[in-house]
Amino acid sequence: MSGMDGARIESFLEMMAVERGAADNTLQAYRRDLDHAREFLAGERVALCAASTESIRRYIEHLDEEGFAPSSLQRRTSALRQFFKFLYAEAIRPDDPTSPIEGARRARSLPKILSESEVDALIDRAEAEAAAPDLSSPALTRALRMHALVELLYATGLRVSELVSLPRSVLRSRQRLIVVRGKGNKERMVPVGERARDALQRFATALKASPSAERDGSYESPWLFPALSESGHLTRQGFARDLKALAARAGISPDRVSPHVLRHAFASHLLQNGADLRAVQELLGHADIGTTQIYTHVLEERLLRLVTDLHPLSALAAEE
Description:
By secondary structure, the chain is mostly helical. It is built from 15 helices and two strands.
């Protein structure tokens, strides 16, 4: 599957170089963008050449959720359009799956948000399941892992790719800050609350004591959340699937819950409770404050409440 995709990409780049005189930098950018799309779709068991319109939409939504700037979104979308037009023109595909997709310049929609009480219900359910009596060792380890993941995600607002690939070294101290390597290999410091640190320690202890960890080498893994996967750690798809199942057990519609929705909840709840937009930008790892400004509606609501509740004229109007 990947071999065929690679061959088609090479044919496309050759056409761009020979027929359109594309510069080397342009060709390299196309290759990077198409390889990135191919890797994402491979995680969903979809070949790039066979991708449907819906698959490509999911990829573009993924880029948007990861905080890509509008210019980057447009460039990557353009690369996909050019690629599929080539496949269609060469009769490799009978259709162009990008034709129904809107341009990337549209305004971003407001992120899905969970209320604080809904997040509490989700975490409480994970904690209760991790404390259930008579669990087998593997079941206990899985439950403690899920509790640690949810606590840590809501405590830090990490991207799901950052969360599942955290190194085991974050457990080596009880420091309140951990170093996260994010997009563009950039590092940032992220504070971790006591609850999340405690959940991580309980999971690590259970993993060490698990008989299966010794057999498959999980406890010797360099990853905080090891798994039998190609990367050696829990996959983002696996975590997203488990999170939706947890949401259903907590009485929350699975359609409303994803790792990125918890990242949005982290940012929105901080702003609702008085955090500064620049501070939230740093915590989320956004290179551009414009990306963080999708949360300005939260700030607007807070400012309106401040004026309504605290301005002297508002108090006089209420008395009248």
